[in-house]
Amino acid sequence: MARLPRIALFLTGGTIDSVGSDRLDLAWYNEAGQRLAPGELLGMVPEAEQVAAVTEVPFRRLSSHALQPADLIELGRAVAQLLASDAADGVVIAHGTNTLEETAYFLHLTVRTARPIVLVGAMRPASALSPDGPLNLLRALQVAASPAAHGRGVLVVLNDTIHSARDVTKTATYRVQTFADRDLGPLGYADADGRVVFYHSPMRRHTAQSEFDVTALGDLPRVDIVLSYLGADGALVDAAVAAGAQGIVSAGTGAGRPTPAEEAALTRASARGVVVVQSSRVGSGRVVRSPGVRQRGWVAADNLVPWKARLLLQLGLTRTRDPDQLQRLFDEY
Fold first, then answer.
1. 187: closest CA among 208, 204, 209?
2. Which of 116, 94, 118 is nearest to 42 (CA)?
3. Beta strand pairing status for 34-35 and 18-19?
4. Model's pTM, two decimal places?
5. Is the pLDDT of residue 272 over 70?
6. Stretch 221-249: mean pLDDT, rounded?
7. Is 194 left (phi over 0), alpha (psi -120 to 50) or beta?
8. Is 215 a catalytic residue?
9. Domains in the chain, CATH or no CATH each
10. Taking residues 53-71, what's their average pLDDT?
11. How far apart are CA 319 and CA 74, in angstroms?
12. Catalytic residue among 12, 15, 97, 207
């Protein structure tokens, strides 16, 4: 009989292991402050024993909106060291959905491995009527155990759908189909017949091909995001500079246009050595490096949403402050 794949399960908190006041508490369960005990979530999925030999790895459990950069670095190091030691064939990380895509993209950029790393969450708490977490967890384990998942970077699995960490984003506050890849679509499906089916792969650099390495990271430099809106002045840009930001991601209107007042403030920030990355608040489509953007020494975010552009800029600033070299990173990752 063939050996089952060894999957390490990290529980970092979130809706998937939250417990509400009753089965219809689908919105306020965070306020109850209760979580499943260690082993209980996996115990809700006895079918996992048919898929993999699963070992739960202790890690702090928090609501995902409470995570700090230091938490991402520590989680990344724990995952990288575990896989490098050959203690597991793959990793599943249960995570809150609010910032799941940011953690996934950080690991996608920094953990040098071809072995599967899969993030999973839920939109309904474990105590809910018809919770989605147990089946999501089983699907994530199936993907992490699949040979087809090797070399595809960090993956996100919810609602039977496999997404790339780079492209996925949360699109609805409560719906179970909240995660979507607006520009490129999902990579594949963990389907109803139990099969894991991929249809394409990420083309940008990631994981084993990345030049970043989580084991070599200290803290991440401060990078702030400034969202543009009609009539916005430069006050938030100036405040970010005063707070010590080394970089600013401008989430501009349309194809990446800040207001004239914001543009003037961003130009002042550039003159003080702050790196500016121009992205869009739209959530889909590329921001290109126009002649004006290049002349100002700014970087274009391509089709990364602002919060993922922030992560890439933070990592980039640990290596260089040259705008052209930073642009290369946004073109390649």
1. 204
2. 94
3. antiparallel
4. 0.97
5. yes
6. 98
7. left
8. no
9. 6-209 (3.40.50.1170), 222-332 (3.40.50.40)
10. 94
11. 20
12. 15
3-state DSSP of the chain: CCCCCEEEEEECCCHHHEECCCCCCCCCHHHHCEECCCCHHHHCCHHHHHCCEEEEECCCCCCHHHCCHHHHHHHHHHHHHHHHCCCCCEEEEECCCCCHHHHHHHHHHHCCCCCCEEEECCCCCCCCCCCCHHHHHHHHHHHHCCHHHCCCCEEEEECCEEEECCCCEECCCCCCCCEECCCCCCCEEECCCCCEEECCCCCCCCHHHCCCCHHHCCCCCCEEEEECCCCCCCHHHHHHHHCCCCEEEEEEECCCECCHHHHHHHHHHHHCCCEEEEEECCCCCCECCCHHHHHCCCEECECCCHHHHHHHHHHHHCCCCCHHHHHHHHHHC
Mean pLDDT throughout 234-254?
98
